[in-house]
Amino acid sequence: MSRANDVTALLQQYAAETGVRSMQKVEQDFIDIAHQVPSEAISNGLSEALDSEHTPPFDQIVGASFERGDARQRAGMLKPLLEAAGPVATRPLIEQGLSPQATGARQDDSMPVESRLASYLHPEAVQRLAFHAVQVDPAVVHRMSSLYAGDPELGKTLGGATLSVALGKLAEIR
Prior knowledge:
By secondary structure, the chain is an all-alpha fold. Helices cover about 70% and strands about 0% of the residues.
């Protein structure tokens, strides 16, 4: 059986919602498929999952993903959220004591703001930021989906339920 047939068969299992899968199995299936399917297709499946009634709200998914990510992944996630929310979005983060400026930490001005903020922000603050960002610019869902699709290890941080829905949607799209 060819790799394309393997991917199709695996995706069909998600489309048919057959069986309960462990989170580790779903994450591994996502990684395997992400390495064999064009990033744009993965992004479209993720966009549909992030906007699905079968998954938690976008802001909750992003907050949980931020909590699971490493420093590099967290900074990458903040960039599209801050861009979508606009410059006004950083003010509450600073005022709430969630940024390097508020904590008195030594700042490295050569680092982008999202890299500086990533290690100081709590997932709840990122969840609020994601909520605000999607209200201001709903297209942030697609930009975040592209980010997750381009980095399957980051995509894993979305969790089993969201990835299961995304893989099911990907099967429908294909």
